[in-house]
Write the structure tokens for this entry.
Amino acid sequence: MRENVVEELRHVQSNDATKRKMLDILKRLHSEEEEETMDEDGEDSGLSEEIIEKILSGGQISLDDLSTEEKKRFQRAVASGELSRMIDPWEPWWLTPSAGKIRLSQDGTQLVQPLAREEESGSSEADTDSSYLSDIPPGPETPLPPLSKLSSTPPSPLLAVHLVDIVYSYCFTVRLYNGDWQSDAVGSSMVILSVSSVLGQSGQPETMLEALSYCLEQTCSPAYRHVGGLKFGMALIDDVVSILSLGTPALICLLSDLQRLVQAGEREMKLEKPKRSRRTEVKNKLKLAERKVYFIMCWVREQPGEAWPALATIVAAEKKAALVHEDSKRVEKNGDKGIIQGKTLIEEVE
């Protein structure tokens, strides 16, 4: 964790608010420890005036600018979760009151707010609705073409299953980045590829159970276990149910945001130095993922509105089935040692 934070600090240009928060943390930690202990040489180990001036004047924050003692305090702040507590928890846009008020034109574009409701409401309420809507990803900038223009063959009947896989991976990624995937477009796109079987592995899950099981396996894998494991995965399935229940406009906005995420990842990878560039295979995966997201977005637009509540019901019903599936796989993998009489190896935590 410490190495990741240090590496990120070397490349991120923080805004003034972030710099002041980090400065406050370091100064507070210094003040708390100053009463208990002093440096062996008796000198003050707080932030130097040069460092403070550089931070407040908009200079880039670097761990190398800190003294040995300041580095230790910063590392302790990371390990103790002090820095995490300075981050305001992000509220997913699909859980906001205005998520159900999303309106798109027939071709999938032009996110608007109904004027009638705005006129009937007081100015304060209208401002509140506008604030909520500003947090919702906008729809596509150009009209979505009919599927017949994209492919001469009928769409696969499995696209509903693939949609659930894609929506889950999106929810996982934006929650992992606390709603700010723009801060690391390459990293976010890599997470999408790793969590989604459809986008990352060219997978073709045939059942909802298969799709959800893969997503849960990735969520509980060593790479992401620290995020929350199975409990986090169950919450993400609830996110999928919520988004499906919102209907076509919300799904199109989500897929449009996911498309922008993947496109941003592609652009940033092209700008990376040769020594940090990813393999061509990954770049090709991103291009293919972008096409898939666009195709399924066009497919979503043509589906009847009543399809989504029905799909949400299926996903909710499969939630327990996914737990049973994970349980059986764990027992099979561990053999007799994995069998615990009268107990399940995986259970949902309320």
User: Anything to note?
Assistant: The CA atoms of residues 182 and 261 lie 7 Å apart.
